[in-house]
Design a protein that fits this description.
Number of domains: 2
Order of helices and strands: HHHHHHHHH
CATH topology of the largest domain: Butyryl-CoA Dehydrogenase, subunit A, domain 3
CATH class of the largest domain: Mainly Alpha
Number of helices: 9
Number of strands: 0
CATH superfamily of the largest domain: PhyR, sigma-like (SL) domain
Shape: globular
Distance between the termini: 54 Å
Length: 185
């Protein structure tokens, strides 16, 4: 890090090579649109290099980087503000079958292809939430982080994280309930 701070280009390249897989995975977990991934990863690296002097070391460097990545994803989602509700007619035939089968049985995601379809459907539903709700649901429920870990990554208080998660889960449940009734838009 001292070499990066001193402007050593080799150290900069090495840091990018080391951090790229972690940042890429972090961005991929938080943003649905693949077209956005490269732009956001680049923005994360830009912020890291611009703010490297601010890293003081009380928390691990990887945690500091992850926090920048999560914040950048959150900012990106807020800028986009595209959060359409998912309707039954928006779903592919395969996704409709998954909903129907899931509602009739409790075996959602047993086969690989079904798991992929279910994951895609879940991703569509999560993407319809507000950016803050998307981040919290992805961190708490998909990445299975604790509330404490989410507060450390986002800088938000525990009560804000819990309330945001509760509201987001309620919205997801409402959307699933709407999807159960195929005649609804």
């Amino acid at each position: 890090l001292a070499r990066v701070r001193a402007g050593d280009e080799t150290a900069n390249r090495t840091l990018v090579e080391i951090l790229y897989p972690t940042i890429r995975a972090n961005v991929r977990n938080h943003l649905r649109r693949r077209d956005d991934h490269d732009d956001v990863v680049q923005e994360v690296f830009m912020k890291i290099f611009l703010k490297i002097e601010q890293y003081s070391g009380p928390q691990p460097f990887e945690h500091w980087v992850s926090r920048i990545a999560v914040t950048t994803c959150y900012d990106w989602l807020r800028k986009r503000k595209a959060r359409p509700l998912v309707s039954y007619s928006d779903l592919s035939e395969a996704e409709r079958k998954i909903i129907t089968r899931t509602l009739k049985t409790e075996d959602a995601g047993q086969s690989g292809s079904r798991r992929e379809l279910f994951s895609g459907l879940l991703d569509k539903l999560i993407s319809s939430l507000k950016p803050r709700e998307q981040i919290v649901i992805r961190l708490l429920d998909l990445e299975e982080l604790s509330v404490k870990e989410v507060t450390e990554l986002t800088g938000w208080g525990a009560s804000k994280v819990k309330v945001t998660a509760m509201r987001a889960r309620r919205k997801l449940a409402d959307q699933l309930q709407r999807l159960e009734q195929p005649g609804q838009p």
